[in-house]
Amino acid sequence: MGKFQVVTHPLIQHKLTILRQTSTGTKDFRELVNEIAMLLGYEISRELSLEDVEIETPITKSIQKTLSGKKLAIVPILRAGIGMVDGILSLVPAAKVGHIGMYRDEETLQPVEYLVKLPEDIDQRQIFVVDPMLATGGSAILAIDSLKKRGASAANIKFVCLVAAPEGVKALQEAHPDIDVFTAALDEKLNDHGYIVPGLGDAGDRLFGTK
Ligand code: PRP
Ligand code: URA
Fold it and tell me: Which parts of the sequence bind uracil (predicted)?
């Protein structure tokens, strides 16, 4: 079973509280999503593997640590996932960025895929799938189906969100028990329209200022 972790760093909780408020406008919302994504990325990247490397300082030769293992791909689920990309890129600027375009049909709440553009060597990469919201779980499940279909290995996939509903976590873990899931908050429930309660509203609309 993959890992499920609520990342409860005080800075993350503080910023998330501001993010949730209706009075937070588009500019601050955008900045906060990136800042929280960066803090989440920092916590999650604790698990990256290291190897020894010999270097020369001005004083002597020395064995030090360097990142080893697989290169990283960040895969935002469009649109709202885009809001998290720069924050994570500020930690790992050389990461490649794939895109999975998906929207929820507002009546059925089912996700509809409209774009998949991934690095060619996606099967060789560690993958952070990013989307601020995990509500019913439909979008995340379909995005990860898409990645697996294209050769991504479950052991390399981490799903990273800001706010999750228990219903979405359960659905995602049932559909993909082999991936790791990280969130900044686990909220109470979904309402009748599939929105997370208390949540933060529609993440895409608030990030981009469009409906
Ligand atoms: C939102 C959000 C997730 C999805 C979560 O996107 O960004 O992708 O809903 O809901 P789910 O877990 O029930 O699938 P939306 O479909 O509103 O598209 P957008 O990002 O283009 O606004
Ligand atoms: N998508 C959002 O943007 N917000 C929710 O609360 C649920 C799905």
Answer: 196, 201-203
Active site annotation includes 104: yes
C-alpha of residue 133 to centroid of ligand 2, in Å? 6
CB-based contact 72:57 (threshold 8 Å): no
Per the annotation, the verdict on 108 as an active-site residue is yes
By CB neighbour count within 10 A (0-12 exposed, 13-18 middle, 19+ buried), where does 176 fall? Answer: buried
Separation between Cα atoms, residue 144 and residue 172, nearest integer Å: 9
Tokens of 165: 């509903």
52 noted as active-site residue: no
pLDDT at 157: 97
Binding site for 5-phospho-alpha-D-ribose 1-diphosphate, residues?
A: 79, 104, 131-139, 202
Q: What is the pTM assigned to this prediction? A: 0.95
Distance from the first to the final alpha carbon of the chain: 37
For residue 70, what pLDDT is reported?
80
